[in-house]
Amino acid sequence: MTKPATQHYRLLALDLDGTLIGPDLQIPPGTREAIAAFQRQGGRVTLATGRTLRTTLPFAAALGVDGPLICYQGALVTDHHTGRVLLHEPVPPALATEAVHRLLAAGVYVQAYIDDELYVPWAGAEIAFYQTFSEVKLAVHVVADLAAFVAEHPPTKLLFIAHEDLVEPHLLGLQQHFAERLHIVRSHVRFGELTAPGCTKGRALAWLAQQLGMQRHEVAAAGDQANDLEMIAWAGLGMAVRGSPAPVQDQADVLIDGPHQAGVATAIRRYLLAEAPSQPSGEQHQALS
Fold first, then answer.
1. Domains plus CATH for the chain?
2. Quick one: which of 116, 77, 110 has its CA closest to 231?
3. Is 13 in contact with 51 (CB distance < 8 Å)?
4. Using one digit for the tens of pLDDT, what is the confidence trace for 116-154?
């Protein structure tokens, strides 16, 4: 797809884990300053993440992000300054029940997100591992019959945790079974996520841009995993972290460095600020050094 060229971007969407921050959860040097410079020239910034709102808020505050936040793979868009929910697309109850039944029958741990809290079938190594990804610890509720519970309490999303060699087979099985009835994607070497049909970061970003009165060619986005693919493909300037899965890189206009090299800050300075040299032209996959 040929993307419209422009040097004037008004909205920037940033994935968090693997794109903006690494496993140490630290914001790279110069990132906050680059975001502030973009916002001073009139740009808006959103974080587009699979994280919950509660675990996203500390990063939004630390970065000084001014735009609404896209959480739960696009299932929730919230104005974090006022707390107002702008968009919420939970998993349909019948489909959530079916998915939980299927995963638990296969012996796969799955957790449901309801009102920014976790509902789990058992408390063990899986939830302990998951909680290492944030300094904010979500409330965890063990539910004897999780499938029945989500039938009455539609989850914003479902997430399963498995050994990294088993995630892809489970994803393929779920994708074949549910087809277009659910959106199913890998977000980490050990995570697979299920959201409402068609619910992606890309769709949420397109909706947010429309609400803000911005055109597609005025939007830039950066990500590093399969759950970022639709967002990168939709944006006027799609940026993928080097080392991302091949399909993600194929959709990108430029490749950027990861968190340890402060790739987001470099990309903002190079492509989004008024004094930036130029919009990448012609050659795709121009790498940032």
1. 11-88+199-287 (3.40.50.1000), 93-195 (3.30.1240.10)
2. 77
3. no
4. 999 999 999 999 999 998 889 999 999 999 999 999 999
